[in-house]
Specification:
8-stranded parallel beta barrel; binds alpha-D-galactopyranose; 38 strands; alpha+beta; globular; 13 helices
Length: 727
């Protein structure tokens, strides 16, 4: 880890564990990007920065302040309207209404450690774990200052970036666009890897060549979204899981975002990531400032597995917080799929009793316990217990369940309001809305205006009262719709463009307050499944419900995609009933178990309806899971077969000391053709492993080169596990 400044050439060099990132201050005070990739020795790369201006583009006339038309400069902070013509990182509306923006270098500072970003989630580091470079830039016309923040981590090939803008002028300005990171790559011979989907089919892996145009991954829904995860990677041609240069960009934010890749005709490729300009503008009064959320940039010269493992450990160690960060998560049973809204105390206790009997550790009461909530038509916002339905107080129910040896958890959807609720009747203006336009509903619900501090305070208070009223060990924080008709009656006309981001600031304040007020509670994020599965949420809550689709075969795809960025400790996964509620498929109980292993594990079915034999199977599954739990949570994860490329999927998790591993293999449809062996990864060549439960012993080199023999899986939707221990 190091940050160097070479005075002779005005070049910055940022070294991570095994990569280097270089840029230079060039004529005029612009920051010209030189290099990002595997570690290099040179501190100055002046030759490489030589640029050729040949095209038909305006430059700065007689002033000769800029080296070339800005279009020819690979840039770190591209400004708007001053001859760049590609996507700019920043656009500011000056007091006179013009938007040309021209930030130039002023000074810099290199400091140990990493500063928090006020009110926003971000990775953190001790002074000996990271170094930070602060670069001050100034736009003299508006007297705006931009601080570009770069942090380099000691133990990871990761650089984080964000920007702080301050208005030092005498008049208000409006920030119209602010991207947190802008990086120009030489050439355009890359592929873009990204995660796309929809409700109940999240995290599909897309890969396309960089087009001679602009490619966009984005959300304009006010949530990071099921449609696109706030992540993309640029991959050198031919880069795959095992080899090649890969550059990841992951956004630590839970609202609308935009990431774009623009290949221009001069053979440069720009990647930018930050607020979605469609859903963002921010007025800065004199003296005011705004910081953008952080982008985490990871380089790997050994392909995608290495990139993912960097994200996994960085997010687990330097982003997740709190008591549950490394702690074993309890095996849970969730009442949603067993009962939906249709339950009473007797049903709940029966399910709890049967669950405790087979070894479940946490009982989660999902939707339906509050207000008059017996369907999705009512009561969001009315966070008081429906004692008639649950047969007494929440505390009585929780204590009865805890007396069975279980922990007790509860579902909330704090950001929502039903039209049919006491809260809406009392405060019809507390939801997001645009004047008198119809308020669009999903599941009969509207979105509370979290840009208003008094609304957030009310919800913090209401949720706290419930959490104080009973012994609660776990909370599922759900959020079931995108934002529409976004407007707030509390803000003046010129600040309406701020509502999307103010909403997220309010959300983060609520999450920060509640998670620190109740530090022992395990919080799990959810948004109709994976609609807000992003690093921003992981800062507050160490795990997330990845999808409402609990079908084992579909989950193979969803987990495969999610593991590109997120550690197994952050994915929760449940075994549910068949035929599956979302896709009507029937899969064997064993495959459902194997598919759910790559996550924080639990059940979402009515155990009371199972046969004795199935209950026994579940008892064994839970015992088996507990045996593997530490390995799965703490080991290194490798994708072995992509479910997007064929008729199956496989993974392996290897302990840090390489002495233990668990591999899962899944065959989707039955064919006459059978795969005979599975090549493993991550083992030690020279160690001899015993396949547990058998007398077979193989060297790591054999398992990784020849592969482990596979049994014949005869039928649809089958799977098997291999547990290996070094002798
Ligand atoms: C969402 C969640 C589900 C469940 C329901 C309850 O769809 O993703 O897991 O909690 O809400 O209404």
């Amino acid at each position: 880890m190091n940050i160097l400044f070479d005075k002779a050439t005005s070049t910055f060099r940022l070294d991570t564990k095994s990569s280097s990132y270089l840029f230079q201050i060039v004529k005029g005070g612009y920051l010209c990007h030189l290099y990002w990739g595997g570690h290099i020795e040179d501190t100055s790369m002046v030759g490489i920065s030589r640029l050729y201006a040949e095209a038909y583009d305006p430059a700065d006339g007689d002033m000769h302040e800029r080296p070339y038309p800005m279009r020819f400069i690979p840039q770190e902070f591209a400004c708007d309207g001053i001859t760049d013509f590609r996507i700019s990182a920043v656009r500011i509306e000056a007091p006179d209404g013009t938007t040309a923006t021209d930030f130039r270098y002023q000074k810099h500072e290199i400091i140990a450690g990493k500063m928090p970003i006020d009110g926003l989630p971000a990775t953190y580091a001790e002074p000996d774990e990271a170094m930070t470079l602060k670069i001050w830039m100034r736009d003299t016309e508006t007297d705006m200052e931009a601080i570009l923040w770069y942090t380099v981590f000691e133990a990871y090939d990761a650089i984080t970036r964000h920007v702080t803008l301050t208005n030092h002028g005498e008049h208000p300005t409006t920030v119209k666009r602010l991207y947190s990171a802008c990086t120009d790559f030489a050439g355009s011979d890359f592929d873009i890897l990204y995660l796309y989907g929809a409700w109940a089919t999240e995290a599909n892996v897309g890969r396309i060549p960089v087009p001679k145009s602009v490619f966009t991954v984005q959300s304009n829904r006010g949530i990071s979204s099921h449609e696109h995860n706030p992540f993309l990677a640029l991959c050198a041609k031919g880069a795959d899981e095992n080899k090649g240069d890969v550059y990841g960009f992951s956004f630590v934010y839970s609202g609308s975002f935009c990431a774009q890749v623009e290949a221009d005709t001069q053979s440069l490729t720009r990647v930018i990531m930050g607020f979605n300009p469609d859903n963002f503008s921010w007025r800065l009064e004199p003296g005011e400032e705004i910081s953008s959320p952080e982008v985490v940039m990871v380089h790997s010269s050994e392909g995608l597995t290495n990139m993912s493992q960097t994200y996994h450990s960085l997010y687990r160690n330097q982003l997740c917080r709190g008591k549950w960060k490394y702690q074993r998560r309890p095996v849970l049973i969730n009442s949603w799929e067993p009962f939906l809204f249709d339950f009473n105390k007797e049903k709940l206790l029966r399910l709890a009793r049967e669950s405790a009997d087979v070894g479940v550790e946490l009982f989660v009461l999902d939707d339906g316990w509050f207000g008059e909530r017996n369907s999705a038509t009512t009561s969001l916002g009315d966070w008081y217990v429906n004692q008639e339905k649950i047969g007494g107080t929440l505390s009585e129910l929780a204590n009865e369940i805890r007396a069975m040896g279980l922990k007790f958890g509860l579902w909330f959807e704090p950001e929502m309001i039903s039209k049919n609720s006491n809260l809406y009747r009392a405060h019809p203006d507390w939801c997001l809305h645009s004047g008198g336009r119809p308020r669009s509903e999903l599941r009969n619900q509207l979105v509370l205006d979290f840009s208003r501090p008094e609304v957030v305070d009310y919800i913090i208070d209401a949720v706290s009262k419930v959490l104080e009223s009973a012994p609660i060990d776990y909370v599922k924080w759900d959020m079931n719709r995108s934002l529409s008709e976004v407007g707030s009656t509390s803000l003046p006309r010129e600040r309406q463009g701020e509502v999307y981001h103010r909403y997220i600031i309010g959300l983060y304040r609520a999450m920060e307050t509640l998670t620190s007020r109740f530090p022992d509670i395990l919080f799990e994020g959810c948004s109709g499944g994976g609609g807000r599965f992003d690093p921003g949420i992981l800062y507050y809550m160490p795990q997330f419900w990845g999808s409402d689709n609990t079908d084992a075969m579909d989950r193979l795809n969803i987990h495969y995609g999610e593991t590109l960025v997120y550690p197994l400790s952050s994915l929760s996964a449940h075994v549910s009933a068949v035929p599956n509620l979302q896709v009507n498929r029937t899969t064997p109980l064993s495959s459902r178990f194997h598919a759910a292993l790559t996550g924080s594990f639990g059940y979402e079915l009515d155990i009371c309806k199972l046969t004795d034999q199935e209950k026994e199977q579940i008892r064994e599954q839970i015992a088996t899971y507990k045996q593997y739990q530490d390995l799965l949570m703490n080991g290194d994860y490798y994708r072995l077969i992509s479910p997007f490329e064929g008729n199956g999927s496989a993974w392996i998790v290897v302990s840090k000391d390489k002495r233990e591993a668990l591999a899962g293999y899944f065959k989707v449809l039955s064919k006459r053709w059978h795969r005979r062996s599975l090549r493993l990864k991550g083992l030690d060549d020279t160690l001899r492993y015993r396949q547990q439960g058998t007398d077979y012993r193989y060297y790591g080199s054999t398992l990784m080169n020849a592969g482990i023999p596979l049994p014949k899986l005869w039928g649809d939707f089958l799977s098997c596990l291999f547990h290996l221990k070094a002798e």
